[in-house]
Design a protein that fits this description.
Blueprint (H helix, E strand, L loop, with lengths): L4 H12 L16 E4 L9 E4 L1 E9 L2 E9 L14 E6 L31 H28 L21 H5 L14 H8 L3 E9 L2 E8 L2 E8 L4 H13 L10 E9 L2 E9 L6 H7 L4 H19 L10 E3 L8 E3 L5 E3 L6 E4 L4 E3 L14 H4 L8 H21 L24 H10 L14 H13 L10 H13 L9
Antiparallel strand pairs: 1-2, 3-4, 3-5, 6-7, 7-8, 8-10, 9-10, 11-14, 12-13, 14-15
Helix pairs in contact: 7-9, 7-12, 9-11, 11-12
Length: 501
């Protein structure tokens, strides 16, 4: 994929304004309004959002208007017009239909002709860069104040996204503090995201797959993870960027988002997603290397369940979020943090639903989930794609498989099994859709639960939970909230000593 600079810059500008033309959008609070949609990004004459907007941009000396919808607090709508850019926001249906904007008059002393920037939005981006520098200056002042007050040591990981070393403060930790966020997403202010992305140095490739590559990067001496999407997975980047920039997802057990950017490398466009870096890697990697005591296995399971429950629940209010189903839950998409808790990653296939608008947002991604983890109703194509609960039930099936992967690596009476993926003994290494359909739907197999789990009260509870995640009837499966509460109860229950004979 190679997006042209004009189209790319316009896209990033529209995203900065919170615009998602072409698709109906969800409002985190309040009712939706219909808006006139006239833009290269529009898929029809009408779009739906939390507010309407008109954007006027001078492109190669020609003024062009873009009318569309917005999805979050229109922070940038409070700016003043320039000779290259103007904008208007309103909150009633079709209030952007008959609005006419003008650009600020060009000062007479300004040179013309050769002095004009060749890029379509170069002057606009220069203005945005100045705003970003101002934001960074404010952050620097706040950082010094925090340091003087000694607040840094009092903050938990949900506020300090990347842990500081013992010798110095975390710059990203301060940047990601709630005082500096836009209030709409869970990462940096949008304008600062691009500044940070351009300062990241890629150090080593730590993972490769069909999705692309993951690198460990350095930003001012701090490690970050940089996921570089392959061109065929561009929709996953768009989806994750949209979700992280419009939904409050700050949670200990959801992978922390820092920035998203398009960057030019070797005359092609790369799509970057910058997140926290966790040196233990994925749960899949961790289980290959590590055997588990029962209590650690439970800790991994509880933390993963907390992340899934947070995704699945809809939270109402200005600090709320829509309900989200993951759709590609697996051990490779669960990361292990330094405190040996899990966090859920990869929202490229996520589905969102808000009760207030009753709109099911399934995105626009042709990619399907991982076949090995697909629920029977997905494999036999009986899933109700118009029902949000259906997607949550497929997550529960997959979560049961992740639990099975964890419990295989638990030491009981000195016995432990090697790591194996689900259905390792029934399908090839890279199973086809038909391979999985035969095993799961026709033969109705589920992974064999090790008998030794019955010897431990906590592990026997995990075994029962797996069975309840794998019911053929999707609606009979446990909910993520029930799984979380049951695991927390198992975790807090005193471990009974074994009887001696």
């Amino acid at each position: 994929m190679a997006l042209g600079a004009p189209r790319r810059d316009l896209l990033m500008l529209l995203m900065a304004l919170g615009l998602t033309p072409g698709d109906p959008v969800r409002s985190s609070g309040g009712s939706l309004v219909n808006c006139t949609c006239k833009s290269p990004e529009c898929r029809g004459p009408i779009c739906q959002g939390a507010w309407c907007t008109v954007v006027l941009v001078q492109e190669e000396g020609v003024s062009r208007e873009h009318r569309s919808c917005g999805t979050r607090d229109p922070e940038l709508c409070r700016g003043r017009p320039t000779e290259f850019f103007n904008h208007y926001c309103c909150y009633k249906s079709f209030c952007n239909q008959n609005v006419s904007l003008t650009l600020k008059a060009t000062p007479s002393e300004q040179p013309s002709g050769d002095g004009q920037l060749p890029l379509v939005l170069g002057p606009v981006l220069a203005l945005l860069a100045l705003i970003a520098l101002g934001a960074l200056a404010l952050w620097h002042i706040r950082r010094r104040r925090r340091k003087n007050r000694g607040l840094h040591s009092q903050l938990g990981e949900s506020s300090i996204i990347l842990k500081a070393s013992e010798q110095r403060d975390s710059m990203l930790g301060d940047l990601l503090d709630s005082d500096c966020t836009t209030g709409s997403g869970s990462g940096l202010p949008f304008l600062v995201q691009r500044t940070v992305a351009r300062q990241v140095a890629l150090m080593e490739c730590v993972g490769k797959g069909r999705y692309g590559e993951v690198w460990r990067g350095l930003w001012h001496g701090e490690s970050v993870a940089v996921k570089i999407f392959s061109s065929r997975d561009e929709q996953s980047w768009f989806r994750e960027t949209e979700i992280y920039n419009t939904v409050l997802l700050r949670h200990d057990n959801i992978l922390g988002f820092i920035a998203s950017d398009m960057t030019s490398r070797n005359s092609s466009t790369q799509l970057w997603l910058i997140t926290h870096y966790h040196e233990h890697g994925s749960l899949y990697d961790f289980l290959q290397r590590q055997t588990l005591e029962p209590q650690l296995a439970l800790q991994l399971a509880v933390s993963a369940a907390c992340g899934l429950a947070h995704l699945h629940v809809e939270i109402f209010g200005t600090q709320g979020k829509p309900a989200i189903a993951h759709r590609d839950l697996k051990s490779r998409n669960v990361l292990v943090k330094s405190n040996l808790q899990c966090c859920i990653a990869d929202l490229g296939l996520a589905v969102m639903h808000s009760q207030s608008s009753d709109y099911l947002d399934i995105g626009n991604n042709p990619r399907v989930g991982t076949k090995r983890y697909m629920a029977p109703e997905v494999l036999d194509e009986q899933i109700r794609t118009d029902c949000f609960e259906s997607y949550k039930w497929t997550d529960i099936w997959a979560f049961g498989l992740v639990l099975w992967e964890i419990t295989r690596r638990v030491i009981v009476n000195g016995i432990v099994e090697d790591y194996r993926p689900p259905f390792y003994d029934a399908v090839p290494n890279d199973p086809s859709f038909e391979d999985m359909k035969k095993v799961v739907c026709v033969d109705q197999q589920t992974p064999v639960i090790p008998n030794r789990l019955a010897a431990d009260p906590v592990l026997s509870g995990l075994a029962q939970m797996m069975r309840e995640c794998w019911y053929p009837n999707p609606s009979a499966r446990l909910t993520a909230l029930r799984i979380k509460k049951t695991l927390q109860k198992l975790s807090s229950s005193p471990r009974k000593p074994k009887a001696t004979h």
